[in-house]
Amino acid sequence: MNTMHHHITKLKPNCLVYMQHLQNIKRSIFAFLLCIPTSLLALILFLLLIYNGFTVFYFHLPFPSNPLPEPANFSQGNLAKNSFKKLPASVMYAVKEDTPPVILKTLLPLLQNPAITMIPINHSVVFKPNKTHGYEAVKRMLRSADNLKRFSTRVREFFGNHGCKVRFFMTWISSLKSFGDRECFSVESLFRSHPDACLVIVSNSMDSESGSLVLKPFLDKRFKLIAIKPDFDYLFKDTHAEKWFKGLKKGNVSPGEVSLGQNMSNLLRLALLYKFGGIYMDTDVIVLKRFTKLRNVIGAQTIDLETRNWSRLNNAVLIFDKKHPLLFKFIEEFALTFDGNKWGHNGPYLVSRVVSRVNGRPGFNFTVLPPPAFYPVDWSRIRSFFRGPRDKVHSTWLHEKLEQIKSESFAVHLWNKQSREIKVESGSIINYIMLDCCVFCNSSSSSL
Questions:
Q1: Can you give the residue ranges of every domain in the chain?
Q2: What is the fold, at CATH topology level, of the domain defined by 148-372?
Q3: I need a labelling partner for 431 at 20 to 30 A (CA). Which of 24, 294, 328, 403 fits?
């Protein structure tokens, strides 16, 4: 015991010496740090922060592998030097659907002759409404279609009594109040180029006493036109639209978020031409020259400037024989793939899909006309057609463009949604076109 006590007593001085040595080292370190200039210390800390930040963010910041593509340029000036040629129906493309754009979008890569699988939709399980607002709108639209079995009789009597060799159809699903100066001028241009034509406007609102007042100026000039309420059951009978329409009336088909009137117009135009044959045109189309030499024709809205093949078709102007097989396919596609939530899915994109699929099949005889035929200006550039000359250079461009349109175009689509509020300026392309195509030429062009 005495020996152990002796060793512990001997270690105490050694420990005290070691602790004293550590304290001296600590004092030396602090003294050294205090000797470093403040600016140098700040620099060291800053470098440490940079290094730390680099190691953290280097692995997490995303970098695009490829630069974004530039918007496609569809300037009509690029088309001016090309002569007017029909696009063969054997060369076709399908396009990807998108929502209605507000700025020029980049054209997506084209797929030639895609293998499209069409899966029929079981309408009985698609939609079960609970008296929603959308379904109430459906019932209001279809209510007036009851007891209209005289539709076919009225149309046939109208064509027969007037000996109509040139038959035009328009549809108007909106209210009578919205049938304004622009729609009336579309009718004017039609009869200016086709004074011998017969026009049937399929519309609930126009087939009324008030509607007759709107059409009276044309009737007073002995133009042949009539407004008739549609008989959907008759028009859709013996087509794929018949079952689709029954499902819609029963509430088994969702009308979707897109205007039902727009989609009904897309289907009506197909059914009208399939039942009767003739020419369909939208009410925002200005006719420039006679269509009588055109047969079984659909127009391209855009083309690939490198390949000169169409990239999208449009259904604002359709010219087809009665019971043409392509119309039957259009109606079939509408019924089997209807989607009321996608803009254009049942219209321009529909005709583009179908035409791309029937490529090379026997029995389909039709022609795809290039954009200048009916769509000489893209929707994104329609404003330029309403502007008057700004300077000498602009004035020269306007006159050259106008001459090109007169030479190559049968009609001009005004892209109503984009141009409805634009005023027609004096000296603009539309101003000159209106002066050439008017029937009642004392009206103000700015009201279009």
A1: 148-372
A2: Spore Coat Polysaccharide Biosynthesis Protein SpsA; Chain A (3.90.550)
A3: 294
